[in-house]
Amino acid sequence: MGVINEVDREKGVEAEESFKKWLNKHDIPYLYIQQDIGTFSPALKKYFGAGRPDFMILVHSLGFIMVDVKYKELTLKYKNFTLDYNALTKHLSLERNFKLPVWYVLSNKVSNYNTWYWIPVSKALERGKIISSQAGNKFVALIPEEFIQVAVYESLDKLFSEYFLRGLRKGRII
After folding, report:
1. 8 A C-beta contact, residue 114 and residue 152
2. Is 104:98 a contact under the CB 8 Å cutoff?
3. What do you get for the CA distance between the two ends of the chain, in Å?
4. Are 148 and 162 in contact (CB under 8 A)?
5. Which positions ≥6 away from 20 have C-beta within 8 Å?
6. Low-confidence ranges of the chain (pLDDT < 70)
7. What integer pLDDT is reported at residue 1 of this predicted model?
8. Contact by Cβ (8 Å): 2, 84
9. CATH fold of 6-169, please?
10. What is the pLDDT of residue 75?
11. Domain coordinates of the chain in residue numbers?
12. What are phi and psi of 26, to 5 degrees?
């Protein structure tokens, strides 16, 4: 993963704070995962690398899901979202090795954080197009339709009903 500049870091913090507000508004229980390097065991570094999910959301009767919140705007030229390929593969490793569902949740200031774009990491790699930058960094490009969109006034009910309905339409859970 590349070095994050100060502006991008601030945007990420703002997105996480807005997501916390959304969780609190809908009375969704969660644990915020502190991102300081000393807050997790060195043995987990091989699974998390430089980053890790930001939240553990507790879902009544199901358990929990890990969520990595990202500040992302649609690219101007292609009208898609891009996710860092290396970070995605590390999150997929976490999901597969520990049987922990990991999701990306994207939003931005342009939308005033009124829409949250949700996607499981496994689906992001399955459905996204892998692209390389001129600097050699790899990204996964995804169109907004690949995400489950949850409006600020909607709760996790929308996420899970859409998730299961999409799976049923395809004869499987996505």
Report:
1. yes
2. no
3. 27
4. yes
5. 30, 32
6. 1-4, 37, 45-51, 168, 170-174
7. 45
8. yes
9. Trna Endonuclease; Chain: A, domain 1 (3.40.1350)
10. 92
11. 6-169
12. -100, 10
